[in-house]
Write the structure tokens for this entry.
Amino acid sequence: MEIRSTTDEDHGVFIDTLHTAFGRFPETTADGRGTWWSALEPDRGLLAVTADGRPVGTAAAYSFELTLPGEVVVPTSGVSAVGVVPTHRRQGVLSAMMRHQLAELRGRGEFLSVLLASEATIYGRFGYGPATRTRRLTVQRHKAALAASRAGGAGAGSGSVEVMRRAECGELLEQVYDRYRRAQPGALSRPHRWWDRRAGQPPTSPAPRYIAVHRDADGVPDGYASYSLGDGDTLTVDETIATDDSVFTTLARFVLGHDLVGKVVFKHVPPDHPLRWQFADLRAAEVGHDTDWLWVRLLDVPRALTARGWSADGELVLDVSDPFLDEHGRYELAVRGGVAECVPTDREPDLSLDVRDLGSVYLGGTAPSTLVRAGHVKAHHPAAAARADALFRTERAPHCLHWF
């Protein structure tokens, strides 16, 4: 079997093989735009091909930017379109593609890779760890009254809301999303290619949507909510993008006040978002589909740890194993003034952990002590977990809502 990179000429074969792996049939459009896969980058795909020339597996990567704690923006690869046709599963094809891809990413000089896992049991063995979570809130409209803010803040927003059709405001959405993602840890960029080719899911896809656009007191767009009203009485909000909590509250108040609606579903809400606390009825919002979202894989531990910002000073020795790549390293992490140094060391470790567990704590969404308690991470002395928690803790929880 051969693992090889794809070219423009392989596009049709790649798409057919990918869909065969998932038992689906590809959508067809006149110019190739508007399909979920239309933003694939032909030079970043992989095909697994048998000795007699049959394609049996696919993997791809998108060129994204990821926002790290401290509002640090770095390049990353978004791994996607991974599949093996049914006749060749459990024969090492997936592992071979993953190993080949990680080598390619390192060859490009990248130190991080991310993906969305179709199944939670697949990608841990390749070194990816779940790093962000998202949840769905369902609100019955008769319970949807928001309480008055007792201390100003998020409930006391100013500005205006305008309703537009998705087809009218693509450039505006692109600009607002880009402003938002640069300040949100865990957020991915949406390159212009995605908006131009209408790839992915709403609001980038061609699906008809209404967009509630929020403008500040000076008329500058600073948030939006993409929504649709289904055949029943449910209004579904694909995503709410806001530069601060008051803008989010204003947009939430708008959709919750929509006529002819029995309930409102917010599909992507950060687990720590204050919206639930803003209802007059604390039980108004039902939490559902609380799930992992972005998985992170460190390809170069020292570069990754020195790239992000830190909100506390301290030192930590990490003993990191990478079973999939058969690698092992021990690193001294020292943070001073929010800036980290990370170098190999022979000192006794504070924590021993797998690279996938380091991926889970990297963005600050999972406390190291949680993984110690779960039996994933070994703490070598009583203070180690608390010291790691203090270091990795972030002022703002990571969240990602981009689908790829």
The longest strand covers residues 55-68. The chain is about 20% helix and 30% strand.
